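To the team - carboxymethyl coenzyme *A complex, inputs and output below.
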Amino acid sequence: MTTETSQSADGSVSAAAGTLTIVDNRTGRTYEVPIEDGTIRSTELRKIKVDEDDFGIMTYDPAYMNTASCRSSITYIDGDKGILEYRGYPIEQLAEKSSYLEVAYLLIYGRLPSRSELEEWTHLITTHTFVHENIKDFMQGFRYDAHPMGMLLASVGALSTFYPEANQIKDPELRMMQVVRLVAKMPTLAAFAYRHNRGMPYVYPDNDLSYSGNFLSMLYKIAELKYQPDPRLERALDVLFILHADHEQNCSTSAVRSVGSSQVDPYSATAAGIAALYGPLHGGANEAVLRMLRRIGTLENIPDFIAGVKAGEQRLMGFGHRVYKNFDPRAKIIKRAVEDVFEVTGKNPLLHIATELEKIALEDEYFISRKLYPNVDFYSGLIYEALGMPVEMFPVLFAIGRTSGWIAQWLEMIDDGEQKIARPRQIYTGARGVDYVPMAERS
Ligand code: CMC
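Output:
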């Protein structure tokens, strides 16, 4: 609790360890604010007032540059050291040894499953991949060229109307049922959106296949009786899902938590996450990278492009990160996966442009001084393209992987007694008490 402290005659203040001493120069009063986990509670600052009528001090933090909005034990990131861990496990180990469904279990339940638990979890997910036929009809109602991310956003939102019991978020059993459905149905909805865009009939899930293998089947199966995914592509896709599974309080996860804090059902909260991920600065970045590489077109055009970036005309998409200021560990893993995928599919000429662009940027003072390095999206688009995906599908793939993270964060929030409906404050800068002017009298 913040306490007001007294100042001695020489002006020195005796303060307890583990506190922050604040002197309000407007009043000369001194306050001691407790520091816990390297943070102070913003509400403690409200006690700092000039007089009784004063609202108290607020913090101003547009874009949440320095505000922790929750306690979380899901994902740890050290942006300077390039560390990413899910529940304490380094991303490098999970990408090498685990599967997406196991990682989803880890994120959601907080620990690695035993063999039988993983089997049960996999069975649960596999047997909930089908969607109601009306969802299919709903998706068929979209225009032929609808962006698949817009379709995913709408259809995930629509799921809440098929499972009205999902709004009973305090019921742990019902809650877990929706968690299973969300993880299970996301690839189905994503694949339907893709097929719609191609004007192809939707393919129903094949429960004999793995999570990623089934997704590939729903995307690419044509007339064959059984689709056999290439195990290397299946694995590459699984690794991409693992890498995208969670990233602590990013824009879309904050959207899920913020919307979820109103106690709405998890489908609606997840739809909010998808909406946030749709934006070019978040999940749309890999789409933007591919478009950028195509625009650059040849190696000769790179210097002009870089000059344009430095002049502030455009951004080098796939570079820079709010948190990673040294390297993005996911980018390193993806770069390796690119090689594996290209072994199967053949090299994409855009890879040359990407590698050259990276090389030039990493040696350039503009990027070095701003700590701009390739992020997860710089190479993921190349893999997606090699897998035969159109750019519009890139954020959709991101959304499939991120679903387990969103839902783990949502579950954590529901059980967090400190959380309430999210409601930031503002600094009001507009007019006050203005009299209404009838239309005829307006100039
Ligand atoms: N190209 C050129 N300049 C850049 C870039 C870039 N990609 N990113 C940042 N800068 C510059 C920016 O202009 C600013 O320069 P100055 O100080 O001279 O004004 C400085 O670097 C700091 O940038 P910022 O916008 O304050 O940094 P931020 O932390 O707000 O932005 C970012 C992070 C990811 C939005 C940004 O780096 C960006 O727009 N990158 C391109 C889009 C992208 O690849 N997004 C994917 C992010 S990773 C996937 C995910 O986790 O969502």
